[in-house]
UniProtKB/TrEMBL annotation:
<dbReference type="GO" id="GO:0071111">
    <property type="term" value="F:cyclic-guanylate-specific phosphodiesterase activity"/>
</dbReference>
<protein>
    <submittedName>
        <fullName>EAL domain, c-di-GMP-specific phosphodiesterase class I (Or its enzymatically inactive variant)</fullName>
    </submittedName>
</protein>
<feature type="domain" description="EAL">
    <location>
        <begin position="4"/>
        <end position="228"/>
    </location>
</feature>
<dbReference type="InterPro" id="IPR035919">
    <property type="entry name" value="EAL_sf"/>
</dbReference>
<dbReference type="InterPro" id="IPR050706">
    <property type="entry name" value="Cyclic-di-GMP_PDE-like"/>
</dbReference>
<dbReference type="InterPro" id="IPR001633">
    <property type="entry name" value="EAL_dom"/>
</dbReference>
<dbReference type="Pfam" id="PF00563">
    <property type="entry name" value="EAL"/>
</dbReference>
Length: 240
């Protein structure tokens, strides 16, 4: 699966293309930090499936399709060599079928994001550790919603608190206390914590009060089209 090259100008009209969402950090980086997302635009204008919805659909059709998509995203990001620190999504199906390929990929400048919404066996996680984390590669858990349990996966770099946490519950003193304690326990285990779905100044302030190390969300704008040339990256907006 190798779509034809997509320019920044016409990317939004193509069926399959990449965007990136900036990740804010307290110390403004000299290079962009962001998550790379896949967008699928069916013929209907102004409508695109979410990445999770697409990957669920792809998994229904066959794990090999998920692995092919993961590999295409990874190869696209690596090929264009845009300076920055990029988070890309990785699913268990890809580790199952492409472990040897992953073991050959450079680890610099990439963070792999995965989720417990797909099952990870201990053996499969050990495979991911062997082919990626043992070579200083970083992995983060996405979509985290449980403030009672700190994940204990071998070699884990950090986690991202899901957007529903900041949207579905009022910011009471109890809420702040629970999540502050959770983030502190994550830090005690050497994990970094990023808050997703930050759309308002209040959500930003609460997430920072809870101790989050980074923030991601529409407060800093909509996802930006992933460029096809290094020159196109000069227009990247880095949140301040």
């Amino acid at each position: 699966m190798t779509p034809s090259p997509v320019s920044v100008a016409d990317a939004w009209t193509r069926p399959l293309f990449l965007v990136w969402q900036p990740i804010w950090t307290p110390q403004p980086p000299t290079r962009p930090v962001g998550e790379i997302l896949t967008r699928i635009r069916p013929p209907q204008p102004e409508w695109a499936l979410s990445p999770l919805a697409w990957w669920r659909m792809a998994a229904t059709l066959g794990p090999h399709l998920v692995a092919q998509l993961d590999q295409w995203v990874w190869q696209t990001v690596a090929r264009h060599q845009i300076p920055g620190h990029w988070h890309i999504n990785l699913w268990p199906h890809t580790v199952m079928t492409q472990a040897a390929w992953i073991a050959q990929q450079p680890t610099a400048g990439l963070v792999l994001e995965t989720t417990e919404q797909w099952p990870w066996s201990a053996r499969l996680w050990d495979t991911l550790y062997d082919v990626w984390m043992s070579r200083q590669g970083r992995v983060m858990l996405d979509d985290w919603t449980d403030d009672t349990v700190v994940p204990a996966y071998r070699g884990l770099h950090g986690l991202k608190i899901d957007q529903t946490v900041w949207h579905d519950e009022p910011f009471t003193a109890a809420f702040i206390s629970r999540w502050t304690d959770f983030v502190a326990r994550c830090h005690d285990h050497g994990l970094i914590v990023i808050a997703e779905g930050i759309e308002t100044p209040e959500q930003r302030d609460i997430a920072l009060q809870c101790g989050c190390d980074g923030l991601q969300g529409f407060l800093w704008g909509q996802p930006q089209v992933w460029p096809q040339r290094t020159d196109d990256a000069e227009g990247f907006v880095i949140p301040q």
